[in-house]
Amino acid sequence: MNTKAVFYHAGCPVCVTAEQQFVDNLKSPVESVHLGLQKNRLDEALKAGVKSVPALVVDGNVFHINYGAGIEALINS
């Protein structure tokens, strides 16, 4: 079975640290989506269940890592 993983973030220091310490060490490839720069992906993140960033979605399961920013802050920016 192929695992699909997407890491949603806003580019903040908490997000960057999570990406460096967590995502870069996963065995499966992970797509990294900077929601501050890729606002066209916000709806996708919301539908996946992302409520704050940084967040990792693996096979439909959302893992909120620490708390950098609520997704509403990205929608309203």
From TrEMBL:
Question: Any idea where the Thioredoxin-like fold domain is?
Answer: 6-64
SUPFAM superfamilies named among the record's database cross-references: Thioredoxin-like
Q: Name one Pfam family in it.
A: Thioredoxin_3
Protein name per Swiss-Prot or TrEMBL: Thioredoxin family protein
What organism, scientifically named, is this protein from?
Cellvibrio zantedeschiae
